[in-house]
Specification:
The complex is a heterodimer of chains A (188) and B (188).
Chain A (H helix, E strand, L loop, with lengths): L5 H14 L7 H11 L5 H13 L2 E2 H13 L2 H26 L7 H23 L14 H19 L4 H18 L3
Helix pairs in contact in A: 1-5, 3-4, 4-5, 7-8
Chain B lengths: L4 H15 L1 E2 L5 H11 L5 H11 L9 H40 L3 H31 L5 H21 L4 H20 L1
The chains are: A mainly alpha (188), B mainly alpha (188).
């Protein structure tokens, strides 16, 4: 199922790998390019892939890029896309090490601002995908209110406990159990 | 051959890619234990320097891994670190795609996946807030103007993204410029 040419997939990864900084909030860049701009996937399928790549082990952004690569482009495109995502930064890092050493550069405040900008993407990513709690492929009216609110409650509960320092080895199974139980008990 | 330092570097990062859940931040202590305490490849200071420098180059936040390999063993260390951290995601995501994609339309699988979405979003929201707080409080030398500036960047950025179709990369760089100007005005 080759929907996207190798070249297009590499170009997208290169753009994200060579020009963007900071957090895994950059999943938003994939979402915008793949769903909003090119319509290679539906909103719902992107959320599905995103969920899957986050719960499996591995670096988030890399997992996302690689899974999407297999889904959209095939093995060759995926491998080249991964190189395009990861190699430019690594080479720049070695170059920066030789040119600057570890001296603090006057650019530091710029990069701090950049990192706040990229956390902002994180917030937008969360907001954009929380909208999915109310959308349903089966009901044109959307998900019934009780179910929608329960999904929000699980998300907020997990987020709150995570911030208050509850260990992930406890939080992950409980959060997963609560979310899955909700889907099976409250059938649409 | 099997005892060469490149193989060891490769294995350290391979293990890291398997246990990392979320970004590089969660596994940083584990990585430091291997690199600094167990193998004595780098000192604590060298490790932190590398991490800090890696924050200012684009790419996935695992970008520091090939660089650590490079500091230990030069170009061959770079290659070992690069393939160590990025090869398993290719294998795991390839397997996940192969199995998951053929069963994704089963009602049972669909419910499991929907059930995991609140968990994933909750975790992302919590790490976004924590990351934002960390980076905001160190944007400038004093905490209060730093937080005020960071809130301003975040709110303005979110409105900017909502009101017009602004390119996310432009937004990130603009946030960087604002951070820089703020630094010049406040810290001189």
């Amino acid at each position: 199922m080759k929907e996207v040419s190798n070249w297009k997939w590499v170009a997208l990864n290169l753009k994200i790998g060579a020009l963007s900084f900071g957090s895994s909030g950059r999943a938003l860049l994939y979402q915008k390019a793949i769903v909003d701009e090119n319509r290679w996937l539906s909103d719902d399928e992107f959320r599905e892939v995103f969920t899957l790549t986050q719960v499996l082990p591995g670096p988030n952004l890399v997992n996302l890029s690689v899974y999407l690569g297999f889904r959209l482009s095939g093995l060759m495109g995926t491998a080249l896309g991964l190189l395009a995502l990861a190699l430019p930064g690594a080479v720049m890092l070695v170059a920066a090490y030789h040119l600057l050493g570890f001296a603090r550069t006057p650019l530091e405040p710029f990069f701090k601002g950049v990192s706040i900008g990229s956390v902002l993407l994180f917030f937008v990513l969360v907001a954009k995908n929380a909208q999915g709690f109310g959308q349903s492929a089966h009901f044109s009216k959307g998900v019934p209110r009780f179910k929608r609110l329960s999904r929000f409650a699980v998300a907020i509960g997990v987020g709150g406990f995570a911030m208050s320092g509850v260990s992930l080895s406890l939080l992950l199974p409980l959060g997963a159990l609560a979310g899955i139980a909700l889907e099976f008990i409250y059938v649409e | 051959m099997w005892n060469s330092i490149e193989i060891k570097i490769f294995m350290v990062f391979l293990k890291l890619s398997l246990i990392s859940f979320g970004g590089v931040f969660g596994v940083l202590p584990e990585l430091e234990r291997d690199i600094v305490t167990k193998f004595h490849w780098l000192t604590h200071d060298q490790f932190i320097q590398t991490f800090v420098l890696a924050q200012v180059v684009p790419g996935p936040n695992m970008v520091m891994c090939p660089m650590i390999g490079y500091r230990i063993a030069g170009l061959s260390g770079f290659i070992a670190g690069f393939f160590g951290i990025y090869s398993m995601p290719l294998v795991i995501m390839g397997g996940a795609f192969y199995f998951y994609h053929r069963y994704r339309n089963l009602a049972f699988v669909r419910k499991l996946e929907l059930g995991l979405r609140p968990l994933v979003l909750g975790l992302i929201a919590s790490s976004a807030i924590q990351l934002w707080w960390e980076q905001s409080s160190t944007l400038l030398s004093q905490k209060f103007p730093a937080l005020a500036l960071s809130i301003a960047i975040t709110v303005a950025g979110i409105f900017w993204m909502k009101s017009r179709k602004v390119n996310a990369l432009v937004l990130i760089f603009s946030a960087g410029m604002v951070g820089w100007v703020g630094h010049i005005l406040v810290d001189g």
